[in-house]
């Protein structure tokens, strides 16, 4: 599920997540917000399927954009893919020297956080 929240709904969601998980905020300076928005809006708009149960049931701000898969399609992979597609260098590793920098897709939140720190 991909959420697209704005205004007070977004602020409330963030406050809830900070309280529940102690979330960390990172500022990525080498891409523009508009580039990330374009990528995530395209993903969000690729589906109009909504949840039938739970907190976001039948909410137009929550689209099911694919199947959740722990090791290949989760919140961390979504963020790392968007950063890489937008042209950020924040997730690059040096590679083996011959190939040059390699953009990494992260699966585990703590590993993405460590890279961004």
Brief account:
This protein is mainly alpha-helical.
Characteristic key phrases:
two-stranded antiparallel sheet, 7% strand, mainly alpha, 117 residues, single chain, globular
How far apart, in Å, are the first and last alpha carbons? 27 Å
Q: What string, H for helix and E for strand, traces the elements in order?
A: EHHEHEEH
Q: Low-confidence segments, ≥5 residues, pLDDT <50? A: none
What is the strand arrangement across the widest sheet? 1-2
Walk me through the structure:
It is globular and about 50 Å long. The chain has 4 helices and 4 strands. The model has no long low-confidence stretch (mean pLDDT 93). Helices cover 40% and strands 7% of the residues. With 117 residues, it is mostly helical. The chain has one domain. The strands form 2 sheets. A two-stranded antiparallel ribbon has the order 1-2. A two-stranded antiparallel ribbon has the order 3-4. 8% of the residues are buried. The two termini are 27 Å apart. The longest helix is centred in the N-terminal third of the chain and has 15 residues, at 7-21.
Secondary-structure blueprint:
Layout: E1 2-3, H1 7-21, H2 33-45, E2 62-63, H3 75-85, E3 92-93, E4 102-103, H4 109-116
Antiparallel strand pairs: 1-2, 3-4
